[in-house]
Amino acid sequence: MTSSWTGSTFIRQRRTDEDLADDDDAVISGGLFPTSLRRRGILPTGCCSDPRMKLHANADFGPNPHHPEDPARIEYIMRTLKANGLVFKGSDADLLKILKKEPAKYMYRIPAREATREEICTVHHPQHFSWVEGLSKKPTDELRLLSSKLDQGRDSLYVGSMTFEASLISAGGAIETCKHVVNGTVKNAIAVIRPPGHHAEFNQAMGFCLFNNVPIAAKICQTEYPEKCRKVLILDWDVHHGNGIQNMFYDDANILYISIHVYMNGAFYPGKPDNPMTPDGGIEMCGAGPGLGKNINIGWHEQGMGDAEYMHAFQKIVMPIAYEFDPDLVIISAGFDAADGDELGGCFVTPECYAHMTHMLMSLANGKVAVCLEGGYNLEAISKSALAVAQTLMGEPPPRLEPNKKLNKDAARLIAKVQAIQAPYWECMRPGIVDVQDLKDQGSMRLHDVIRKAQRQGLQEKHNMIPMYIHRDILFRSFENQVLVTPGLFSARKLLIIVHDPPELHAQPDPLTNRLDAHNTYMVDGVTEYINWAIANNFGVIDINVPHYITHPQDNDAFTPRPNEKALQAQIQDLITYIWDNHLQIHDADNIFLMGVGNAYLGIKVLLINRDVKSRISGVVNFVNGNLRPVKSDVDQDLSGWYKENSRVYVANDHACWADADYTRKVHKRRFGTVIRSDVNGLTRMMREHFGDVQQWVMGRLSSEEDEEEGHGDTTEEEKFA
Amino acid sequence: MTSSWTGSTFIRQRRTDEDLADDDDAVISGGLFPTSLRRRGILPTGCCSDPRMKLHANADFGPNPHHPEDPARIEYIMRTLKANGLVFKGSDADLLKILKKEPAKYMYRIPAREATREEICTVHHPQHFSWVEGLSKKPTDELRLLSSKLDQGRDSLYVGSMTFEASLISAGGAIETCKHVVNGTVKNAIAVIRPPGHHAEFNQAMGFCLFNNVPIAAKICQTEYPEKCRKVLILDWDVHHGNGIQNMFYDDANILYISIHVYMNGAFYPGKPDNPMTPDGGIEMCGAGPGLGKNINIGWHEQGMGDAEYMHAFQKIVMPIAYEFDPDLVIISAGFDAADGDELGGCFVTPECYAHMTHMLMSLANGKVAVCLEGGYNLEAISKSALAVAQTLMGEPPPRLEPNKKLNKDAARLIAKVQAIQAPYWECMRPGIVDVQDLKDQGSMRLHDVIRKAQRQGLQEKHNMIPMYIHRDILFRSFENQVLVTPGLFSARKLLIIVHDPPELHAQPDPLTNRLDAHNTYMVDGVTEYINWAIANNFGVIDINVPHYITHPQDNDAFTPRPNEKALQAQIQDLITYIWDNHLQIHDADNIFLMGVGNAYLGIKVLLINRDVKSRISGVVNFVNGNLRPVKSDVDQDLSGWYKENSRVYVANDHACWADADYTRKVHKRRFGTVIRSDVNGLTRMMREHFGDVQQWVMGRLSSEEDEEEGHGDTTEEEKFA
């Protein structure tokens, strides 16, 4: 069985023989480790650390001197790497001997060194360098005072007498790590360094960061290896946004900065409270000038993200864009504060997931990946995470992820938004994104107007319903034609007023252009059935369609936001009170029923609160799958009680209020009405499910009122109007 | 600087010390290679081959004995692995000594062996085993006859006197390779084996395949290691569909079969010509019973796919589903006939892309990946591809892909369809997929009816246009209300007949539910402007909306296919000739203009061909961004010439006809009319762009006819009808 291993003569075609020349011995002779030209993979992984970085410690000798950015951080990580056999315990000379034979056995020690002033000033202002340098000359009491002053708000910093020196080594460690990766001494590498860097700005230390290690290293590599290292991807998975890195390269076309972080609409560190409109970490921050599209923020809307969300971000955004960018070097700004166990971060990324993210990034740049420690404050969590990353760098298969973690829906929506925002800059982000400005240039119209026109046509054909006359100047144009009424409304003895959301649309758009084929788009509408039933039972009907959105001509966002609830509420209030004051108040119907569907049920709430209508209303039926709203009034103490007794509020089965016992208790209070948990979800499904129930309830209230309270008897409409 | 490497006392928190116990020496003692429990990655990669598999050769000694499935295939691959230093040239004993010290230096030799009858019959019928066994007993002339008979159609097979023995070793090699991976003797492995297996059915040899190596190996691993190897992912990237694997595990919940192959609607091997409705490789084949959802076909619509499409398939489908399945073992059915250079496959996958796909799969199952050779017939291509795969298995970073390859649009659509088809079975496929059956259960209506209703309402309000009366029994219901006409049509002196596609819709649906907000959905319509203009200029207008799709109540496909052009053409022909025969033929208008927009311009073609209308038509204007159609007639030889002189056919700037010189020449022939390349793309944009041009052209033809041919002078409509 050995002939195919040692060569054979059984060859019928020889056309590739030249390619098959034996180049087993072709090696890179200049490097530390002799390696076949085609086998960079057998180079060792590098690791850079230096105990001098532990000398940066808090000078604030107050009653609670502990600070999360503690010297023990790198100590713990290094001990863990050692305990797991990744780090050799003997001398450098012995290590080198071993690695030349067995390159994957241990990590190669990359020596750290102090960065120079020139190196640091590639991305920092000389005055900033001098400020940090000055710390080493300050007396201890002054440092103590400074630390306690800086440990506030956005600064969030401490300083000590050795801060300058430690910071120089941290930056120098990052430089040496990246250089070793670029020049091929090692396959890839990890720098276990501190203080971290990614918050440090051009001219300011902040967020535990003095010098911005990763940008310095990236700049030095680009300068010293202009051929080999032109394009750098910096992937920042620290739970905080790396404002410093973003700002340093915001207009740089050759540095792609991708950050995955908790954003919370700017409320999470380092959001800018002084300029809340544009915190650095927002997803709309895409770079500028030549760097447009080279800044990608995946800023979670809340804490609590874990493997499912990070894997999703990598699959949907990070890896497709990274492939398209095709970097020469990947630097990971590896904070481990999104790790499961880090209380500051409040996220749940497992060591396994860090391994998988590392493994994915290792497919880029011929495997040239340099990992630089940033934040991360739970010693156990950062150690386990860093171990997983280092093992993966060394060629260990990433361990299996815990399966079937549910993807957070809002995170999935955020990812889709990031895709829409990056679509102009990246081919791979374009499929499935609508260019709203371009559609407007083609004279498009929003579909909600089209649909309401069709509804009006349908209700007119079937029931002769017509638009109600409304003084237009008091209302936005969006409410035009939104109110349809049955003919002879004023002589109806029974009225049903339905305030509803527009019908639901579901579509399977073309995956590339998002063009819809109308025949693949479906409209689902639960209201028509109720109108048909009401008219068949001689109700007069007022059908009020409330658009989700009040059109503003300047909106060009592909995801036009859901309506500003306050503005919409003001509009609905104007409309519904207008209808009440001008039409219903003077109406002498015996029975008036209100029905609210979806977010539009807000209209029912504002009518009940703003007009004293209790005595005129025979019942209220609401279908809710969004915000549940209380009906109460400071003026009318009986309102909530009346509402409870005279309403049925169907709430979707998957509504958040059922998941939380406190919330459930709350919605059973009087002011939320008689709340009923539906067996189903979705407005249309709910309306169909409870149709019989509602009919019975309405008719039951009707006859009892007619029979007992007003004694109208059981006459039919025909008899009354005969 | 050595203290952090060798341990230190600088620790302020000790809470994780127990976890940090030094377990450097904990090894798996049973294995061939001692390895730290936490470092499976330093095990060697295995490789299995055996020269005896070359003994299966074509017994058909005809004038052209060469067969693509040639013994040289494995010879070339092994030589290439050797030439690149992946395979040791010395003895097994020396290799073992080296690997114990330097596990990544060479691949470990996994010995092949003959599979047993029992092993093979885990997936094959005993009669099939006996049939193959019988080949070894047949005389050469009989084998020759059999080979020449089998080398036809779907059988596509050759046999020889050593076929049985070689097939046993091929299957045994696959078994040993997978077992070595599962039991952890090696990190991962590649089996360079032949004959291939994936076409072989339970009871039939076909497609160069005798025994189905990979299913046999999977079954044996599941049986022998029930704990360690319960769930197996078989990823088949051979360019042909692995019908045998699919059918053997079609109802098996523990084997996920994913195949990426050329399908061509069943026309590509091994499509089933005897049952063209359900060729095995169709994307709708999802498994059955307990195996429902465990069969995934990514069947390309055509050849020519390359890195962009394969990476896209991996990013969008393969990896998300594989993570969700979470296999214990990954087997790659690795045909290299989709490789760039393989003429049979006609695809362009590079060695780099094979490396990346391998690297991605290595993130699964704790890295337990076994690669088994299937097809691939260009010796150079398969050797380079196998080398890239083997290097990646050994820990080499995957080489960079050639950047910015354009993704084939139809391939992207196919991937989206696969997502829709798999959505019921995989959580990760669900976001963005519409469940049509569920929408129907909610009583939805297709949006095209809604839109047409709105258009009708609009044209009625603005121009008093009304539906034309049409005998319904001769036409499908879909054409109801699709024809609107201006009032007093019969007295109009000038007519414009517009046959158009429905307006375009563009939407940004919710990324999870595909629910549309109508305010985020845009309708773009180029026709209304022309109608307004025509009516302002006293034209009578017939507006014919041609739905893309004729509704069939039983369709539940999220992507209802674009219309069957033939059926649609028959319908349009019925409609347009009905209108001509009943309304226009007897009309005495001086000028009739025809306008065709989009696919509906088919209507213009069928009218011109099926009725002799030349003398009545003053001009034809078409806007085309889909199929360009010739207007010619065997009966009327002058028709094409007349069409050329009396038409303007605006063709989208990005139409395929401009990309190819032959095609361009062709569309400038008379029968395509006067074809004009537009500066823009998209029907609506084109109609806006050429609005002025069309007005001028139409008015120019009008006045000349009126002035010269019929001498009507320049009277206005008012004067005429005064």
From TrEMBL, chains A, B:
Top-rank EC class of the record's enzyme: hydrolase
Start and end residues of each Histone deacetylase domain: 67-392
Subcellular location: Nucleus
Listed EC numbers: 3.5.1.98
Record field: compositional bias (Basic and acidic residues): 712-722
Coiled-coil intervals, chain numbering: none
Domain Arb2-like: 446-703
Keyword annotations from UniProtKB, A to Z: Chromatin regulator, Hydrolase, Nucleus, Repressor, Transcription, Transcription regulation
Region feature (Disordered): 703-722
Catalysed reaction equations from the record: N(6)-acetyl-L-lysyl-[histone] + H2O = L-lysyl-[histone] + acetate
Main location: nucleus
MF GO annotations: histone H3K14 deacetylase activity, hydrolytic mechanism
UniProt superkingdom: Eukaryota
GO terms under cellular component: histone deacetylase complex
Gene Ontology BP term (one): epigenetic regulation of gene expression
Role summary: Responsible for the deacetylation of lysine residues on the N-terminal part of the core histones (H2A, H2B, H3 and H4). Histone deacetylation gives a tag for epigenetic repression and plays an important role in transcriptional regulation, cell cycle progression and developmental events.
The family this protein is said to belong to: Belongs to the histone deacetylase family. HD type 2 subfamily.
Protein name: Histone deacetylase
Upper classification of the organism: Eukaryota, Fungi, Dikarya, Ascomycota, Pezizomycotina
